[in-house]
Specification:
The complex is a heterodimer.
Chain A (H helix, E strand, L loop, with lengths): L2 E5 L2 E3 L5 E8 L8 E6 L5 E7 L6 E3 L7 E6 L4 E6 L8 E7 L6 E2 L3 E5 L2
Parallel strand pairs in A: 2-11
Antiparallel strand pairs in A: 1-3, 3-8, 4-5, 4-9, 5-6, 7-8, 9-10, 9-11
Chain B lengths: L8 E4 L5 E6 L11 E6 L6 E4 L13 E6 L2 E6 L8 E8 L5 E3 L3 E5 L1
Parallel strand pairs in B: 1-9
Antiparallel strand pairs in B: 2-6, 3-4, 3-7, 5-6, 7-8, 7-9
The chains are: A mainly beta, B mainly beta.
Chain lengths: 116, 110
């Protein structure tokens, strides 16, 4: 059974940092693009970043470029999102997903709240 | 980049068919057959309903179908059921190697 489990969210002050993790199981992690998608409270879905199966390509939405870093460890079947210089508008549930445009499996999400 | 354009809401009666549009540009929807559709119930995780414009993942009802013409993709739900009431999002690959979502459409089953 495919499972994606996010962790690492929490309450952080503006300008702070967090490292989000996504533990994958039930499939050959190293064969898939992976992505992060977020959803602010009461708002729609927003793609944040994705990473190629071997980690050689990474892409970001303009609003997080230079502040967020996506990475993966295929030996540990894990996906990461380092989020720095957080802003109030980054407050959202962050989902990891298998795939790039077509994400067939999603985690339950981890909530990041940026507030003073 | 601006989000893909979807109607904020659509509605239909049980048994009817409805179509949700998703309008992009020549740099995304029109250029690639990489449009997906997601269904999301309040407080729940999104579910992939359509990939690559018109492919239905295993387990998705054949009442759901996708198509594309020019820079507009469409999701059609036939034989509308109460359980179809949810938010629907389109998503497309772009020429910048990024991904764009639509703003979402709330489907109400009357």
């Amino acid at each position: 059974e495919v499972q994606l489990v996010e962790s690492g969210g929490g309450l952080v002050q503006p300008g702070g940092s967090l490292r989000l993790s996504c533990a994958a199981s039930g499939f050959t992690f190293s064969r898939y693009w992976m992505s992060w998608v977020r959803q602010a409270p009461g708002k729609g879905l927003e793609w944040v970043a994705n990473i190629k199966d071997d980690g050689s390509e990474k892409h970001y939405v303009d609003s997080v470029e230079g502040r967020f870093t996506i990475s993966r460890d295929n030996a540990k079947n894990s996906l990461y999102l380092q989020v720095n210089s957080l802003r109030v508008e980054d407050t959202a549930v962050y989902y990891c997903g298998r795939g790039s445009v077509a994400r067939d499996y999603w985690g339950q999400g981890t909530l990041v709240t940026v507030s003073s | 980049q601006s989000a893909l354009t979807q109607p904020a809401s659509v509605s239909g009666s049980p048994g009817q068919s409805i179509t949700i549009s998703c309008t992009g540009t020549s740099s995304d929807v029109a250029r690639y057959n990489l449009v997906s559709w997601y269904q999301q119930y309040p407080g729940k995780v999104p579910k992939l309903m359509i990939s690559e414009v018109s492919k239905r993942p295993s387990g998705v009802s054949n009442r759901f179908s996708g198509s594309k013409s020019g820079n507009t993709a469409s999701l059609t739900i036939s034989g509308l059921q109460a359980e179809d009431e949810a938010d629907y999002y389109c998503c497309s690959y772009t020429s910048s190697s990024t991904v764009l979502f639509g703003g979402g459409t709330k489907l109400t089953v009357l």
